[in-house]
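Hi R.,

Here's the chain you asked about this morning:
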Amino acid sequence: MKKIYIKIRACATILGALMLSMGLLACGANQDKKNEEVIIDQSIKDALDSSKRPNGVEVKEDEGVYIGGDEEIFRISTICTEEEGAEPLFDTTEPKTMIFTGNSLLNTPQTDRYFKKLVEEKGNPLTVVSELYNGSNIKYHLDWLETDEDWRIPYAKADIILFQEYGGYYDTTYENICEIIDNYCKENVLVYYYTTEFDSKNDLIDKITKDERMHVIDYGTVMEKLNCLVFEGVEGDSSAYEYLHQKNDYHPNMLNGFLASAYIYNQLYKTSFDYTYDMLDDNMKEKIPGETDEDKIMNYNMMLEVINKGVTQK
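And here is the predicted structure, written out as tokens:
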């Protein structure tokens, strides 16, 4: 297990922030216990003691957890990997078709388009079909399937479906998904549910995780971690949230969409996202926060660490 260090904004009190940082070490319910182990040593106790708290400390490997003042904390974490030898849930060498079913939370940041580009650049034989309509929910998609034969065509051909929900519809989402896959899809279709910042660990998530046909891509939890990052070379005290969302809007921006596509790719193909800053096109580089290239590289690498660490999925 590789140890990493991420500088994040304190999201509560100092004690609360430390507890949060320790809580973020959990790698998911299905992760092997040795991967969930929290690293605790004397430095944590020292961090809680203001008289022993180092000012402007530079965290180095194996030094534990430190609090560097009231505004920031440093935490030590572990890379959360899939079980050793984990393989994708589908044959990646065979041509497949994947449908994105959702709304503006995937459509506005162009997550599907970035994902399609990644797949093409990696040479994977996966055809990506987008059924993303702003303002829609999964019940709308079910209604369209029930009333429009043409709407059923791509679902009948799909090998993989990714569902995304939003709004006050979670009480029926699981049932709607079941109706879609039972009535309009191949018998062995591979089903993923993609969480956003608006998904809570409610009955919906419980139902999905208990259904052997369905798998969770928990980008919502990853997004919570991204929102707590402290970027270098940015003006004022702006949080990462502002750099990952549209101005004065809750919708993810295209930088967020790119990161989400990388995380989806990681989860489907059971791999780490290996794009360095130099591999990004100029348009994407402009979207990375920071005044200088050095700032941008540091900030991009921090985000990449979160994406590659992620959370364990069932």
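One quick note: The chain has two domains: 1-80, 87-314.

Cheers,
M.
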